[in-house]
DNA sequence: GGCCGTCTGTGCGCCAGCGCCCATTGCAAC
DNA sequence: GTTGCAATGGGCGCTGGCGCACAGACGGCC
């Protein structure tokens, strides 16, 4: 996608809206910056807005009583942050943090709910996206149980890059460790392995993918499952 | 709850329906047996019905390519099996298996969808339940990452018992191991520890809880989070 | 009452990831 | 350029859970 003008259609959910709905909704959206590390929602706190990431990535992560954390899902330009607003719960026990800086389209919670109850295309899109989010969470649970850190690192990298439509990522190993819920040193080792295999280069927070097929071969099935399910639920053609 | 007559209100979602909706919906439900091990849905296969467990428990579990498995959520009389029908995806990449035999109320998928699109109380209940299910999945992911098998065993036991409104469970260690995605021997050890601590008795597939507060103290925070979130989203009073 | 299959308990060696500590290396700000 | 700090890379010993193999123990069935 061209970097050019910001436009709501950079977000795939918004892009999938029919013209009539888009005309009604787009004027309600606000284009806002998403600085790295910014906390959009805190666990248990009432949300006022939802966010449709355009050029940013948001992590949904769970912070435990002892401070340990784990990411449960990644949201980028394929989705929306704040599903609990239309699901009815208003809050969730998780935190939403900007993982990769950029921009997003912000929408007032009440406006979203009004639109949702019209039971039109937006409702359909939101529900289908929510299902894909559930798949991602479920897969994260499975992956945490069964797969090696190397595999999880690759999965995480691929999922993140897909959501940026890029093959570069700015992210320290420390942050990745927080996301994956592992030691920083563990990420150092995993990243080192992948780098030695010639699949990426990693220099002080800058990851570049050299061999994407190689990465996909190295990761576990979890990545493919999540991707396939998203494609199935929300087919997106870039040219739309 | 009295064991007496089967009645849809044994399921908390159905019980929460206002009289008018209940009168419309209940006649469409079919009271069906749920034999142990019965597979309600297979990964990727179109679903024809949803199930409201009354006296049974259903595990949503993920089976990997190599045969390893992991449970991502437990559904009992507090919920419904088959959320992807109204979420729009029709299928999920997971499998639904009866984990504790009993009965459930079955509802035709199309009837459910018709009701859902009325945007009445049933829709609200279903969406809120789905959110609680997401919490459970997320918590499972976190728990898999950070907590010991002992803690996970306690969490699993408590979640299961809550969904049976009982303090006894019929379940071999082999099955529990499949659910938790660990070795059978691991479960033997965890169960042994908990039994030696005087919190349960375990005899050839029959688990009885002796000291419930003790169990709750021994498990991780994950149990409380899931329970609290369910109570918040779907408050249920037994006398309703 | 005896047999058999299922379920449970235990004992190895093994390894991935943890917690802790410190060495090195770039980038950036002055 | 120098200095300072964030970021990365490695080296310990430790432990929880794995894979495997086998020994009891209970329960149902004939």
TrEMBL record, chains A, B:
UniProt xrefs under SMART domains: HTH_CRP
Sequence ranges assigned to domain HTH crp-type in this UniProt record: 164-211
Taxon lineage: Bacteria, Pseudomonadati, Pseudomonadota, Betaproteobacteria, Rhodocyclales
GO annotation, cellular component aspect: cytosol
Record keyword Transcription present: yes
Source organism: Denitromonas halophila
Pfam families: cNMP_binding (PF00027), HTH_Crp_2 (PF13545)
UniProt keywords, alphabetically: DNA-binding, Transcription, Transcription regulation
Protein name as annotated: Crp/Fnr family transcriptional regulator
């Amino acid at each position: 996608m061209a970097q050019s003008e910001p436009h709501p259609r950079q977000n795939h959910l918004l892009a999938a809206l029919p013209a009539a709905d888009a005309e009604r909704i787009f004027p309600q959206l606000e284009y806002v910056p998403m600085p790295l590390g910014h906390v959009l929602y805190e666990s248990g706190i009432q949300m006022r807005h939802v966010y449709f990431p355009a050029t940013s990535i948001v992590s949904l992560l769970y912070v435990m009583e002892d401070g340990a954390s784990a990411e449960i899902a990644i949201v980028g330009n394929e989705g929306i942050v704040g599903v609990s607003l239309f699901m009815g719960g208003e809050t969730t026990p998780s935190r939403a943090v900007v993982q990769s800086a950029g921009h997003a389209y912000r929408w007032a919670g009440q406006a979203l709910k009004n639109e949702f109850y019209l039971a039109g295309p937006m409702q359909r899109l939101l529900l289908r996206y929510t299902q894909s989010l559930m798949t991602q969470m479920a897969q994260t649970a499975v992956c945490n149980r069964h797969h090696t850190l190397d595999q999880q690192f690759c999965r995480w990298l691929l999922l993140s890059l897909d959501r940026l439509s890029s093959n570069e990522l700015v992210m320290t190993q420390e942050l990745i460790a927080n996301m994956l819920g592992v030691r920083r040193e563990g990420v150092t080792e995993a990243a080192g392995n992948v780098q030695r295999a010639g699949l990426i280069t990693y220099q002080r927070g800058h990851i570049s993918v050299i061999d994407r097929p190689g990465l996909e071969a190295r990761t576990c099935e979890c990545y493919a499952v999540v991707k396939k399910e998203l494609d199935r639920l929300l087919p997106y053609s870039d040219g739309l």
